[in-house]
DNA sequence: TTCTGTCAATTGAATGTTCATTCGGTTGCA
DNA sequence: TGCAACCGAATGAACATTCAATTGACAGAA
């Protein structure tokens, strides 16, 4: 039964991701979400109290998926510099292959929904996410230059996100060798 | 008369920027835009054929302002490396001081509006903007490593945008010294 | 096994609200 | 007098949400 529930929810999530990617939050009325997910409008309200709740739950759902794909267990024990590169490449490759997820997250972060999430201090602390910790760890273990984490985060993720954006805009995936070039630049810039 | 027209338009633009920043495209109905701009709803339609047109014109308007503030005449003749740093810092400082503009552009780029703009090949070419050219120039003049412009763009602008985002989220401006650190890292990473 | 009561899951038409857009009329300037 | 700028109530479409009705699964009684 609980599995059923999850499946239906995921069906709705997937439909929403697809629509938001294609037409923004604008172009995603409940009626379309329902049709795409092959459920009745009313059913969505069986799972989510409101559209806003649906969106916010979808955010947490995406976040979980992303983290799962970025921090791979088999890479947990690599030396820091190799892990630094691996995680970074995971980010780019995952987003490149999951356009709708990327597009949703981008829009979400720019929307007032996210404002609400950040306001909640407790969640905010949970929210300081794995990448943040990963960089802090690099600082503590003296792998990274002694910079403010904020700066490290910008230097690490900023280029990745820009790259994914340009890849999606131009509908051309980025060559692996180019990824290596860029992550090398970043690593050389922030390594101790 | 033409000046009048521009003034009214700007009033509407400013109002829209403010609302979009506060509540996203969602939370910006024409009625609110009108009230905030202190004009009647109908008047907006005197200047713009539709809400979509308003948004798209606003995009071009923002783009112009941004370019004006990023490429300062008095810095045009600096040696490339200094100009590289100056332009980059202009980006961060300008966006930091113009939250609503930044927020609008971010949301616009993630929206289907921008898709339409990119589709139009002619505009697309105009669109390849000044920063793009600036980096190409750096390549031609052998100041920069021989990387794909796409990679350079990601390495240059990505961190800037990330930084601004975090600055706006945390409502804390970034210290000038931190900016210098970051732009140094970038420059060292891409310089020949 | 068959029947029955229960409740969650599901449906989509109906409701009320919000919104973009229109338009008939007013103002003010040339 | 004419015309552009301006107004905001009126219109109709799109939308989120509700709800009364239907289905389906299943536990326990016969």
Structure description:
The structure is a homodimer of 192-residue chains. Chain A is an all-alpha fold. Chain A has 2 domains: 1-48, Arc Repressor Mutant, subunit A, CATH 1.10.10.60; 53-190, Tetracycline Repressor, domain 2. In chain A, 78% of the residues lie in helices and 0% in strands. The first copy, chain A, is built from 11 helices and no strands. Chain A has helices at residues 2-23, 30-37, 41-47, 51-70, 80-97, 99-109, 112-119, 121-127, 130-140, 149-170, 176-190. In chain A, helix 5 packs across helix 11 (176-190). The longest helix of chain A is centred in the N-terminal third of the chain and has 22 residues, at 2-23. Chain A starts with a helix and ends with a helix. The model of chain A has no long low-confidence stretch (mean pLDDT 93). The A-B interface holds A 22-27, 103, 106-107, 109-112, 118, 147-148, 150-151, 153-155, 157-163, 165-166, 169-170, 174, 178, 181-182, 185-186, 188-190 and B 22-27, 103, 106-107, 109-112, 118, 147-148, 150-151, 153-155, 157-163, 165-166, 169-170, 174, 178, 181-182, 185-186, 188-190. The structure holds a DNA duplex (30 and 30 nucleotides).
